[in-house]
Amino acid sequence: MCSCQPKVAGEGMRLTDLTGALRVQRLLGTADKDVKALKYRSDKCEPGDAFFALRGRDADGHDYIADAAARGAQVIFVEDVAACASDIKNDPDLTIVEVPDTRQALALTAAAFYRYPARELLTVGITGTKGKTTTAFLLQAIFEAAGMQTGIIGTVHCGYEGHYRQAANTTPESCELQRLLREMADGGCKAVVMEVSSQGLKFSRVAGIPFDYALFTNLSPDHIGIGEHRDFAEYTYWKSRLFTQCETAVLHDGDPAWASMAAHSSAKKKIFFGITGSAHSNDTADSGAAGESISAADTVHACEVRLFRADGRLGSAFRLQDGADFVIGLPGMHNVENALGAIAVARDLGIADDVIRQALRTVFVPGRTETVDIGPDRIALVDYAHNGVALQHLLETLRTYEPRRLLLVFGCGGERAPKRRTEMGRVAAQMADLCIVTSDNPRREDPLGIIGDITAAMDVAGGGSYQVIADRREAIRTAVQMTGPGDMLVVAGKGHETDQIIGTEVRHFDDREELRKGRRL
């Protein structure tokens, strides 16, 4: 999506009503005019629109100002008036607004344009490297079990019951995000649960949103490379920015990075969660993030965890330090941690444990350790793990359920950090009994070249057995036929995705469908 229009066709707002929160450095023309819609793609501009010249990795919106004006844009937001040609600056029908940061200006203008919808909703933002999607689904399920219609914005989809659409980015561009929030508020939602990515924070997509709760799951190196983050320190910094715009910070104190999240937090309250005995949970429960006193009411810790396998599915049961028992229909310690974060928010809101239990038992998260039936006495799962850390956590989790053999089908996406190939190859070689290396989303890269990078890392790591089947459909079906009683098969990398990108072509492809087609009787 690249444009934002009011929900009511033809409705607009006065420019003077949109710029109140902005630091306007220079204004050419009049602010006394209507704005029909907000656009950041010049080719989508229509008469009466406001165009925002955004600077990106591959293009600079300032180069498209003339095109936007030619298509009818009446207001142009820029970071440098000098970037405008003389005929643009002297056009009496145009208004040019110079601001320090057009991305932030778009976010704050969009909030005003859609009448500040976040103020009408209970807002929960979730950040971290892993667990954002699962925690968001858990919280949505709990809120709705408690009678609150709840919207969700994240990697899998955006919207609310009966009004879902596929997500383009984990955190949408700010004007699209504000439009979604307005739709939710007008549609009867009382709450929204949102995945907040480091890119979403870096590019001001959530600027101006007052979060009631900001939740931290965990942190490990990811999204580091060209067009993403310079290094892990920068990645950590942008994650931490979420906690400068929240009322309550909910922190996983079993992950060492919780302190970085809390260091500059403006939250009035902090809640800690984790599994007793994990990295920092015991110390944190006593002293808090900055030495402040933390009461038992501000901590949610599991002291007993039991992983189980029943009826062809994997699950987890745990007991909190206050004696309350919960069961979640998702496998592994990491999902227990995700559930603890959700419980921490829900309890702070006064939602009863029985309501939370009901939601946790039945919650379903597409493409996250999602079980697919491939025949009796064998388990197949689809998971979104697409880097080394995520794959390692996934395989470690499955090993705790003691499969006879652990089979893995995976590849790596093209036009993404090459380091992922090395890390995933190493982990796969060391932790799976048998691997089939295949194609993921090669995009414009040679699939065999990507596979070669993976297998080279596997050869260096040693151990494990693998074969190469470049066709993903054939790879999955071959793996299913190789499974036997007691085996577990995991297809990793694409999770909930229903497309495969080859070159510039987007083809329908769903790992779950292919697993079912290969099912053994």
What does this molecule look like?
This protein has 521 residues and is α/β, with parallel strands linked by helices. It is 31% helix and 23% strand. It starts with a strand and ends with a helix.
Principal-axes geometry comes out as: globular
Q: How much β-strand is present in the residues?
A: 15-25%
Uncertain parts: 6-10, 279-293
Radius of gyration: 24 Å
DSSP, total strands:
27
| Structure class | alpha/beta
Strand order of the largest sheet: 12-11-10-13-9-14-15-16-17-18-19
Proportion of helical residues: 25-40%
Number of helices: 17
- Average per-residue pLDDT, rounded, comes to 90
Biggest beta sheet summary: 11 strands, mixed
Cα separation of the termini: 44 Å
Q: What are the defining features of this structure?
A:
6-stranded mixed sheet, single chain, 521 residues, alpha/beta, 11-stranded mixed sheet, 31% helix
